[in-house]
Design brief:
By secondary structure, this protein is α/β, with parallel strands linked by helices. The chain has eight helices and six strands, in the order βαβααβααβαββαα. It has a single domain, classed as Rossmann fold (3-Layer(aba) Sandwich), CATH 3.40.50. Bound molecules: flavin mononucleotide.
Length: about 200
């Protein structure tokens, strides 16, 4: 099974660290092949609502690094979106990727159907908007028939919610509770994919 993980942070910080940790956990199972993508070194522009994708059934008029991400998203069985919290929600960079998916959806309204998705979010504050950010990612999943998963009750109700205390990767390593939410979410994702998609 192919898993694409996208970090929406503009820097090499907590989100990238957490996403890489999640992907390396999945790589322990031979059933998973993972691909790590970060917005940090890529040129991804926001959607301009030119409607070219609507008129051509899927051709985006913007020629940038989204082309590579389109292919990876299409062939994936599972999607992990990771984001820092920027003013109470996901980063603008991750939102640009989500919006640009309009082109894929115009190619085929069922393009994402039955893929499985989880979220990893990290704020500088313990309660800085992590749950709202996950709801935003889950809205994208729900709208597009992606099955959204969390880590379950008693710990990871909506997914992986972490707190970096604005200390980047080193800061988030101290968030023992948050790291547990990541473990629970990855385990649930792994179990679900192995049970229903193998
Ligand atoms: C523009 C901006 C806005 C931010 N807004 C919030 C916020 O609303 N809530 C919060 O908890 N942290 C906020 N932060 C802090 C980051 O979410 C936090 O440092 C996070 O761990 C960064 O992740 P990264 O290292 O992966 O980039 C903000 C940071 C930036 C740059």
């Amino acid at each position: 099974m192919k898993i694409i993980g996208i970090s929406g942070s503009p820097r090499e910080g907590a989100s990238e660290f957490l996403l890489k940790k999640a992907l390396s956990e999945l790589e322990k199972e031979e059933s998973f092949e993972t691909k790590f993508i970060t917005v940090r070194d890529r040129n991804i522009n926001p959607c301009t609502h030119c409607d070219n994708c609507v008129e051509t059934k899927g051709k985006c008029s913007i020629d940038d690094d989204m082309n590579e991400i389109y292919s990876l998203l299409k062939e994936s069985d599972g999607i992990i979106l990771a984001s820092p919290i920027h003013f109470g929600s996901i980063s603008a960079q991750l939102k640009a990727i989500i919006d640009r998916c309009q082109a894929l959806i115009m190619e085929d309204l069922d393009i994402f159907k039955n893929k499985v998705g989880i979220s990893i979010v990290v704020g500088g504050d313990r309660t800085g908007g992590q749950e709202l950010a996950i709801q935003q990612i889950n809205t994208f999943y729900l709208l597009n028939k992606i099955i959204p998963l969390s880590g379950g009750a008693f710990g990871a109700n909506l997914g992986a919610c972490l707190w970096s205390q604005d200390g980047g990767a080193e800061g988030v390593k101290k968030d023992e509770y948050g790291l547990k939410t990541l473990d629970m979410t990855i385990n649930n994702f792994k179990e679900f994919l192995l049970e229903f998609k193998c």
